[in-house]
Amino acid sequence: MPGSNYDQLVVFIQFICPQPLRRLLYSLASATVTPGKHFDFDSFLRSEKTSLDNLVKRDKISQSQYHRIYHIGGKSNINDLDVHSLVVLLQYLFQGVLSEDQTHAISCIQRRYYLLLILSITATDSVPSNVFESMWTELEEATLTLADKEDETAGDFYTELSELIKQAKYNSLPNAPSYIKAWYIEVSAMQGQTDNEESQCFQCKLGEKATVTEEEHIDHSHEILGADKTA
User: Which of 51, 123, 200, 215 counts the highest number of beta carbons within 10 A?
Assistant: First the structure.
């Protein structure tokens, strides 16, 4: 059976959301290579290193985000990138080529990531059923929008992702506990990180301070926090 509303949303963010984001990033990145030439994702990231160095200097991305993208000890692997790293790369490297629907979907995923992060940091992980349904629907629409754009070249990816979303909501995914555990480890690392680059880069996968910008969207945080106080 599925876990709590909060844990189910964490699994969605940690496991389901990265799948269409990775496909989109790979598709856009590979399109930058001359037709017929071999595409290597690590080489692509290295070619964009100056751009990302400038983003760090301008405080657009943190050192920890930077090190999650560029592994210190080896080649970058797109399968190692989490939601936040994928969003950063898509927004800063391909903002000009993303469609309006894609931009909206990516922003939706980013906002829900931040909200779950804030709730965990504030020890408020009680999500009312109506808020859960609203957030789940938003994430489902966002991920399927991205999948639909890629389905012309990905075969049955849209259908497979749709089925996975249903399974995650009504049944327990086999790997759900590992993603929930990884989430809490990540949150703990964010809270305890120092200015030391190595600790920020904990295995190049953990540690990142979240900053929430004010945008026009449905903000469920007050509703959740209020419900938690009266529970």
Answer: 200
DSSP tag of 70: S
Tell me, yes or no, if the pTM score tops 0.90.
Answer: no
Identify residue 183 by its one-letter amino acid code.
W
- Residues 168/3, Cβ–Cβ less than 8 Å: no
Q: Of residues 174 and 139, which shows the higher confidence score?
A: 139
Residue carrying structure tokens 């903000």: 219
Contact 33, 45 (CB under 8 A): no
Task: List, as one string, the DSSP characters of 20-69.
Answer: HHHHHHHHHHHTTSPTTS---HHHHHHHTHHHHHHHHHTTSS-HHHHHHH
Helix pair angle (176-192, 100-121), 10° resolution: 70
- Degrees (nearest 5) of the Cα angle 177, 211, 23? 55
Q: Return all residues near 228 (Cβ < 8 A) that are at least 6 apart.
A: 124, 126
Asked if pLDDT for residue 194 goes beyond 50, the answer is no
Smallest CA-to-CA distance from 200 within 61, 38, 5, 77 is with 61
The answer to whether 69 and 41 are in contact (CB under 8 A) is no
- HSE-up (13 A, CA, CB side) for residue 211: 7
What's the CA gap between 63 and 86, in Å, rounded? 15
Q: Which two tokens stand for residue 98?
A: 């993303």
